[in-house]
């Protein structure tokens, strides 16, 4: 049988790993290879439960793809930015403020960062099923590779993480995966992302912040690990710490949806992106992300049948009526980076906005 030949794309050469002395976050590692026995599954569920309760971040390793497969997707990740002309990009620019959807291109300098400085981030995002929207010509031959990668991340990574988190709440293991189906009721989305270096003037004005501290509005967010040291978590002790690169690993973080349906037991992780260390100056940070939602009609209220929530007395997170996943994701998407934020009168370095009756914080 002849070997499958994939379209040729330029090879992405990642930045060298930083040699600077870095204050790394101490994150748990979930090893899927250990979860193949009942004993291992129970053990990994405890690790996942404790990590999401304490920090809202962890790594996943031994997920089932090899390094070459992931490297190929990073090659593909540069195509929408480097192989598509500006005129064609304009035909696919997102209109998130009007639609509440991220699909298409987010151009650079769309989000406000600080002191008049806008971002240098370019995104290309699409719904989990690529047939629902059209794509630039350069991406068309690559869709047969991108689609199974998306499905793998949804089903084989995030649904498996949700199985562990369900067990952690002492619920049937299919509870959270069933709330995140791979079908038309779900609006999970995939994103290629490029953080481009900024002028030093912008770095000074923004304090080196590339993307303000925030919590994702998703259930879970998955980032395929890459070596540019820029992502930080606001750790459980209140300090910002860097997320370390691990070859062929995913970085998983908890979002608002999981916090709300777990009654606040699982913590939505505050994170930001800042200027990399000096030995990585000038390198572009290329990212591959998958943002996971429940079905659109899911009410974001606690799973009160959980024995964990019952013991902890966790009955609500949101004051007032719980929004649906659709209401929450559209409100957060439409407002992000383009609304006027108010400074917190009690918390230094924090701004906020009110969406669906919920105070959404942003961190410097």
Automatic annotation (TrEMBL):
Task: Spell out the Pfam families in the cross-references.
Answer: 2OG-FeII_Oxy (PF03171), DIOX_N (PF14226)
Domain Non-haem dioxygenase N-terminal, by residue range, is 29-126
Limits of the Isopenicillin N synthase-like Fe(2+) 2OG dioxygenase domain: 195-291
Q: Output the InterPro entries linked to this UniProt entry.
A: DIOX_N, IPNS-like_FE2OG_OXY, IPNS-like_sf, Iron_ascorbate_oxido_reductase
| SUPFAM superfamilies assigned | Clavaminate synthase-like
Q: Which protein is depicted?
A: Fe2OG dioxygenase domain-containing protein
């Amino acid at each position: 049988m002849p070997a499958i030949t994939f379209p040729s794309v330029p090879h992405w050469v990642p930045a060298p790993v930083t040699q600077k002395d870095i204050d790394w976050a101490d994150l748990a590692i979930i090893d899927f290879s250990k979860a193949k026995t009942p004993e291992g599954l129970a053990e990994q569920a405890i690790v996942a439960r404790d990590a999401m309760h304490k920090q809202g971040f962890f790594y996943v390793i031994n997920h089932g793809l090899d390094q070459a497969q992931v490297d190929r997707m990073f090659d593909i990740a540069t195509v929408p930015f480097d192989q598509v002309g500006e005129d064609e990009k304009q035909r696919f620019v997102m209109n998130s403020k009007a639609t509440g959807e991220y699909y298409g291109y987010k151009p650079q300098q769309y989000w406000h960062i600080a002191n008049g400085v806008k971002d240098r981030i370019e995104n290309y995002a699409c719904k989990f099923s690529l047939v629902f929207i059209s794509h630039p010509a350069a991406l068309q031959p690559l869709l047969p590779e991108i689609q199974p990668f998306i499905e793998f991340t949804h089903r084989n990574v995030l649904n498996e993480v949700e199985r562990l988190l369900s067990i952690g709440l002492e619920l049937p293991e299919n509870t959270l995966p069933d709330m995140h189906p791979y079908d038309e009721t779900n609006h999970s989305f995939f994103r290629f992302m490029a953080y481009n270096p900024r002028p030093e003037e912008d770095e000074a004005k923004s304090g080196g912040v590339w993307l303000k501290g925030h919590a994702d509005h998703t259930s879970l967010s998955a980032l395929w690990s890459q070596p540019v040291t820029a992502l930080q978590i606001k750790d459980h002790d209140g300090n910002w710490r860097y997320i370390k690169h691990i070859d062929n690993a995913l970085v998983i973080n908890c979002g608002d949806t999981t916090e709300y349906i777990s009654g606040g037991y699982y913590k939505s992780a505050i994170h930001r992106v800042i200027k990399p260390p000096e030995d990585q100056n000038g390198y572009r940070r290329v990212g591959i992300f998958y943002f996971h939602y429940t079905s659109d009609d899911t009410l974001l209220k606690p799973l009160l049948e959980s024995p964990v929530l019952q013991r902890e007395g966790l009955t609500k997170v949101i004051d007032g009526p719980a929004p649906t996943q659709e209401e929450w994701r559209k409100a957060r998407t439409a407002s992000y980076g383009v609304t006027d934020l108010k400074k917190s009168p009690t918390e230094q370095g924090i701004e906020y906005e009110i969406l669906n009756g919920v105070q959404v914080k942003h961190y410097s």
